[in-house]
Design brief:
Layout (H helix, E strand, L loop, with lengths): L1 H7 L4 H30 L10 H25 L3 H31 L8 H31 L8 H34 L2
Helix pairs in contact: 2-5, 2-6, 3-4, 3-6, 4-5, 5-6
Length: 194
């Protein structure tokens, strides 16, 4: 009895590792944004930068992507295979759209004369948004794997296998929501601290 109660409250290793990774990422981006604020107050050569409007659009797109990911997770839990396939594919496609828009945003900044080395504020924007870009790109690659697997995996009807795979979908959902929320935070941070 005591053993079964103990097992019920053990966190799955995948989930535990994901939360450790999330805490690490929070610390990294907290350090980035703190350095941004300190440098802004300390540097007389700071130049305010207007964020390209494509960043606003990309923020909306990544929020929509998060909605698709959540819908995919709910569909998987309810064993609605066709819906899961559609939603996970849409989460992947909107993730790709977000990355494309970020690159367009950087190109716009360069056309405005904001270079990586020429402007302190610009350097921070490139480094912080670039670091976030890499985290999203990793998630997009994982989403591609999930999307492809969604068309082959469900031929297996073993309950234990489905339960293990559900943990993977849940971990992916948690990660995707995190990087989406992180970008929303960064977007408003840049907007309010120009």
């Amino acid at each position: 009895m005591a053993l079964s109660i103990h097992r019920r409250f053990i966190v799955h290793p995948y989930k535990f590792n994901m939360w450790i990774a999330i805490v690490s990422m929070v610390m990294i981006f907290a350090a980035f944004t703190s350095a941004y604020v300190v440098k802004k107050g300390d540097t007389s050569s700071w130049e305010d930068i207007t964020l390209p409007s494509i960043f606003t659009t990309s923020t909306i797109v990544i929020v929509i992507s998060s909605v698709f990911m959540h819908a995919a997770y709910v569909s998987f839990k309810r064993n609605k295979v066709q819906l899961y396939r559609g939603f996970i594919t849409m989460a992947f496609l909107t993730g790709v759209a977000f990355l494309t828009m970020q690159i367009q945003g950087w190109n716009t900044l360069m056309l405005q004369g904001v270079e990586l080395k020429g402007n302190v504020a610009g350097s921070f924007i490139y480094v912080i948004s670039g670091s976030h870009f890499l985290h999203v790109a990793g998630g997009v690659i994982a989403l591609l794997v999930f999307a492809i697997k969604s068309f082959t995996f469900f031929k297996v009807h073993d309950t234990a296998t489905m339960q293990r795979y559900q943990i993977n979908v849940e971990v992916m959902t948690t990660y995707w929501h995190f990087v989406d929320f992180l970008w929303v935070y960064l977007y408003f941070f840049f907007y309010l601290n120009r």
